[in-house]
Amino acid sequence: MSKKENEVDSGPSPVDYAAIVASWSPEERSEREKKFVRKIDWRLLPILIIVYIMNYIDRNAVPHARVQGLEKDLNMSGYQYNIVLSVTFVGYISMQVPSNMILTKVRPSWYLSGCMAAWGIVSGLSGAVHNFTGLAVNRFFLGVTEAPFFVGCAFLFSGWYTRKELGLRLGIFYSAAMISGAFGGLFAAGIAAAFANNRLESWRWLFIIEGIATVVFAAVTAFVIPDWPSTTKWLSPEERALGIMRIIEDAGEEEEEISTGAAFKLTVQDYRVWLCVIGQTCLQAVASLTNFLPTLVQNFGYSTVHTLLLTSPPYLATVLFCLFNTWYSDRTSKRSPHIMYPSMAAAAGIIITIATTNTGARYFALFLMLPGTYGCFQVSNAWMANIAARPQKKRAIALAVNNSIGNLALVWTPYLYPSSAGPRYLVAWSVNLAMTAIIVVSTFILTIYLRRCNKQMDNLTDDVTLEQAGVDGKDHSTHIEERSDMDHAGGQQSRSRATWKYQI
Q1: Of the candidates 54, 61, 62, 68, which has an alpha carbon nearest to the alpha carbon of residue 192?
Q2: CA–CA–CA angle 245, 249, 253 (5° rounding)
């Protein structure tokens, strides 16, 4: 297969696709689109959700292994557990942007499945380590091999779904992380009980079993995950045309060819991207509490099995809120309220945790903090996909930057939770409270700026491109002129461009 066939929107000319779609009546187009979206939902979401559950369980096995005796068995002390968490995300961050650059050139189905098999092998080998150094090296490579999956899936979704559809789909997909948090605790509790008296420690079995399951499932995903609308064989010609034109129309203009280096430059020069990244980074800082959730619950005084079981309900509540928040965000085409208000709820949970050591109150606070942070992540990613809508390579890089730089918080936040600071962890909670304030402020500033951009585009004429209106992250306001008639050949695309707006 040639390089061109692997790229998004390759194949026949978009003009041919436009002619196919333009031949349908509005009613026929609407009906076809509903069927198309349902088909993609069933083909794309279930398999990726299952894989992401396995991805998250593998990555977050260490906190569960910790309460099963990992630190004692490996003679770890001081900040060594925190270092293990940090190096995982050093590896994770290092590969996200390069990986999405690679993904614009290769088949997602094979690339993502190969990465899955690799992290399954690395995860299984975690059960064979015998000291801190071995575990740290192992978790670094786990981060490297897991990094491509989430940002790759976010990019893949953006090639299939429009802006109004993307937030909910990302929310459904990301809810898998919360399901894994709930299921991972139950699974770890089962392993701890089943292998309590085994010669091989139960935490080793936890890593081994999870790793084997991941590798086996990776072989299936290579043949199930679809690539792009232009290259997916199980789409009819009409469905292929619809899939491609939906994304072109949603972006406001036909896709253009641009080098990866130029796309990277466009991304880093766009201050809207960086405002979004600030919020994402602070969200990750607060969300890092999940790396210590079993330990925090263990401080309530419960046994190992009960501790692992009690970590599940907050995750289940987070799943429900994440689905509602992303669904309502898509329905209203608004992003900022669905980041700001949940962040305020998380702040309330943090204040409760700082103010009291009461077990019931602190456990209730988890039901505010987890949904209030994790419920925002995919609204943020959907917003980024809109802010950096085009060119396609810029969108890929922007989504990777949003997540990789956001994950930098997971390198330093583990050091906020030293064992000596428990059970109150006042420094950690104070930092988390400050992070929620920054989320609200940065989101508010971004909202004000995007409103200004939308007002500029209200005066956009047909012969001015979206880049000239500032969609590429630069200020081209001198090109903004009075709106003129959009009645000419290629009117579908022109009307889409005329109504294109940043979501706020």
Answers
A1: 68
A2: 110
260's tokens: 């990866």
Question: Which residues have CB under 8 Å from 258's CB, separation 6+?
Answer: 266, 391, 393, 394
Dist. CA 88–CA 111, nearest whole Å: 21
Q: How many domains does the chain have?
A: 1
Give dist(CA 8, CA 374) in Å, integer.
30
Query: Of 165, 202, 247, nearest to 67 (Cα)?
Result: 202
Buried/exposed 261-294: b ≥16 CB within 10 Å, e otherwise: eebbebbeebebbbbbbbbbbbbbbbbbbbbbbb
Nearest to 466 by CA among 248, 156, 228: 248
Read off the pLDDT of residues 299-322 as tens digits, 9 standing for 90 and up.
777 777 777 778 888 888 998 999
Model-level pTM?
0.72
pLDDT band, very low/low/confident/very high, at 454 (cuts 50, 70, 90):
confident
Range of the domain at 103: 13-499
How does pLDDT run across 198-231, given as a tens digit for each residue?
788 889 999 999 999 999 999 999 899 999 998 8
Answer yes or no: are the C-beta atoms of 395 and 258 closer than 8 Å: no
Report if residue 33 sits inside a domain.
yes
The alpha-helical segments, DSSP class H, found in 233-311 are: 237-251, 260-268, 271-287, 293-298, 304-310
- Give the H/E segment covering residue 138: helix 132-158
Residue 100 has which token pair? 């999405």
Please state, in angstroms and rounded to a whole number, the distance separating the CA atoms of residues 346 and 328.
19
The end-to-end CA distance of the chain, in Å, is 41
Phi-psi region of 350 (alpha: psi -120 to 50; beta: other; left: phi over 0): alpha
- The CB-side HSE value for 111 (13 A sphere, CA atoms) comes to 21
Residue 233 lies in a domain: yes
Report the distance separating Cα 22 and Cα 24, nearest Å.
5
In a domain, 504, yes or no: no
CATH of the domain at 473: 1.20.1250.20
* Residue 433 to residue 81: CA distance in whole angstroms: 24
As a whole number of Å, the CA-based R_g of the chain is 23
- How far is the C-alpha of 47 from the C-alpha of 250, rounded, in Å? 26
Report the alpha-carbon distance of residue 7 to residue 9 in Å, rounded.
Answer: 6
Crossing angle for the helix pair 426-457 and 271-287, to the nearest 10 degrees: 150
